[in-house]
Amino acid sequence: MALEAVMQQGEAETAGSAARPVIEVENLSLTFETADAPVYALSEVNLTVNAGDFVSFIGPSGCGKTTLLRVIADLEHQTGGTISVNGVSPEEARRARAYGYVFQAPALYPWRTVERNVMLPLEIMGMTSAERQARAARYLDLVNLGGFEKKFPWQLSGGMQQRVSIARALSFEPDLLLMDEPFGALDEITRDHLNEQLLRLWERTGKTVVFVTHSIPEAVFLSSKIVVMSPRPGRIIDVIDCNLPADRTLDSRESNEFAEIAHRVREGLRAGHSYDD
Amino acid sequence: MTTEAIAGPSKSTPGLLSRAFAGRSGPLAVVCLAIFVLWYLGTVWLNAPLLIDRYEREGQDWSITGLAGDAMAMERPILPAPHQVVEELNKSILQRSVTSKRSLIYHAWVTLSSTLLGFAMGTLLGIVLAVGIVHVNTLDRSLLPWVIASQTIPILAIAPMVIVVLGNIGFTGLVPKALISMYLCFFPVTIGMVKGLRSPDPLQMDLMRTYSASKVQVFWQLRWPSSVPFLFASLKVAIAISLVGAIVGELPTGAQAGIGARLLVGSYYGQTVQIWAALLTAAAMAGMLVAAMGGIERLVLRRSGARP
Ligand SMILES: Nc1ncnc2c1ncn2[C@@H]1O[C@H](COP(=O)(O)OP(=O)(O)OP(=O)(O)O)[C@@H](O)[C@H]1O
Ligand SMILES: [Mg+2]
């Protein structure tokens, strides 16, 4: 117990003192050329995510959160500005398998069992079969899906499928996690539980997490930094530092500190909306 | 009272009739029965003019019932009656050893072997072409139009020439027939597989991109498994036309062996009963081949987790 606390502190310190930027975004904008009118998805976005940060994007639907995450992941290319991931271009970072991505939809392969879906990245990265087995079991347990290894995706509920996709992204233990509304499809209790699990995982491993959510409490509970975005074209209207104590629990959500930050996020979202009309 | 008496027993077994009709066997039996009735009527109707001619030439008296009886027992009818065909099938399948040149099983086997060889070659060619078309942009634009154009050539009409030409340069027997089959059956495989290999949705492709998977990995882990249902749909078409190709390929071989040869010999000598027996054998073969494909499909799809 004591040892664990010491270790946690040590890791938190190294993460804090390093402050190595993992993602640097400058004047980034992205316009989709569609058949009728161009869609301005992102405009003049500036953002730095440091190693060990837990950064949440929050903003109205369609404001470009997914788009920004996809630019970081080199699944989309910006039309203006610059971005670097781990000091190199997103493409190089992707080739170096720098990140794990949880999509907004589960994107499981229907011909693979739950277990083999989780093993997919491990197979591609050439791990031994024993290692694959061990990791699949560990991360399926983490998302409370022990016992569902041999099921096929269609035999699972939507929320369970989403949890499989989370286990899949965690399984190869990337230093950077990009998560697009991973808990959007879950019930409140499962969501609480996974929030806690993710928080513990983050504290323990010092991963950098970029997290998209629509839930203010979730953002405040998990994040070290909350990025509030405005409606289209998505721009950043507020960046809120949010350093609740590291040993926070779900009950911390009742604290005054928590309420203050949540209030500020809400104000930011409101202000963003008034831009529009 | 009587109606009740009749209804009584059927009430005690209420499921029997309705069950037969609820399943597939009931409707199937009705269709078969209808075909038999129509066939017998057709036999009488089509053969009657010949018989009437003969009766009149011989100055014979004739009645409708006598005519019907004679129409179903002619040696070279225009349309043989079903029982004549069945008798011929019995004679040429059950009464002869399978190695005999007069056994339909022997001829069916000859046709089947070139069907299967042509099918295997056509499937392979079809898949290879599809893989090329999906992965190489220039092939997509240059090859696909040729693949489609290839099928506008009436291969059924020029197959005999192809066989004769190939025979002249030393290819005889199995291979030329299999080539005709291959030519016919690579097409549905190519079309189906191009669609199948392109069927993964963008998110599934993005996932592979985030792992920076190689093209080979994307192929085996994503494109190929997504294309399997498309492959089987194509294979069922391909195996049936492969059989057609084999039979057509046998027509000009100087009537040596095979279902096609039997059809040809039958038509030389006006042996309509023999032609029909060969036709029915071919139809049964096609049915069995397609059903076998369906069976393999169910097995494979069940193993890869398809919903039952
Ligand atoms: N491939 C595309 N082509 C054209 N327009 C696009 C494309 N992808 C996204 N958009 C547009 O860009 C805008 C931002 O989309 P994005 O998916 O980033 O929103 P979001 O913030 O993730 O919304 P949500 O919270 O609903 O997931 C939307 O208006 C969308 O219509
Ligand atoms: Mg989104």
Annotation keywords:
heterodimer, A: 277 residues, alpha/beta, Rossmann fold, 2 domains, 6-stranded mixed β-sheet, 3-stranded antiparallel β-sheet, 9 helices, 22% strand, globular, disordered N terminus, B: 308 residues, mainly alpha, MetI-like fold, 79% helix, elongated, binds adenosine-5'-triphosphate, binds magnesium ion
Quick overview:
The complex is a heterodimer of chains A (277) and B (308). Chain A is an alpha/beta fold.
Question: What does this protein structure show overall?
Answer:
The complex is a heterodimer of chains A (277) and B (308). By secondary structure, chain A is an alpha/beta fold. Chain A has two domains: 3-98 and 176-270, P-loop containing nucleotide triphosphate hydrolases (Rossmann fold, 3-Layer(aba) Sandwich); 109-173, no CATH class. Chain A is built from nine helices and nine strands. In chain A, the strands form two sheets. In chain A, strands 5-6-7-3-8-9 form a six-stranded mixed sheet, sandwiched between helices. Chain A has a three-stranded antiparallel sheet with strand order 2-1-4. Chain B folds into two domains: 9-79, no CATH class; 104-303, MetI-like (MetI-like fold, Orthogonal Bundle), CATH 1.10.3720.10. Chain B starts with a helix and ends in a 5-residue tail after the last helix. Residues 1-12 of chain B have low confidence and may be disordered. The chains are: A alpha/beta (277), B mainly alpha (308). The A-B interface holds A 73-75, 94-97, 99-101, 103, 105, 107, 109-113, 120-121, 123-125, 152-154 and B 203-204, 206-213, 217, 221-222, 225-226, 228, 304-307. Residues 65-66, 104, 180 of chain A line the site of magnesium ion (MG). Adenosine-5'-triphosphate binds at residues 32, 34, 39, 41, 61-67, 104, 232 of chain A.
CATH class of the largest domain in chain A reads Alpha Beta
What is the subunit arrangement here?
heterodimer
Distance between the termini of chain B: 49 Å
The number of domains of chain A: 2
What name does the CATH topology of the largest domain in chain B carry? MetI-like fold
Radius of gyration of chain A: 19 Å
CATH superfamily of the largest domain in chain B: MetI-like
What distance separates the N and C termini of chain A?
54 Å
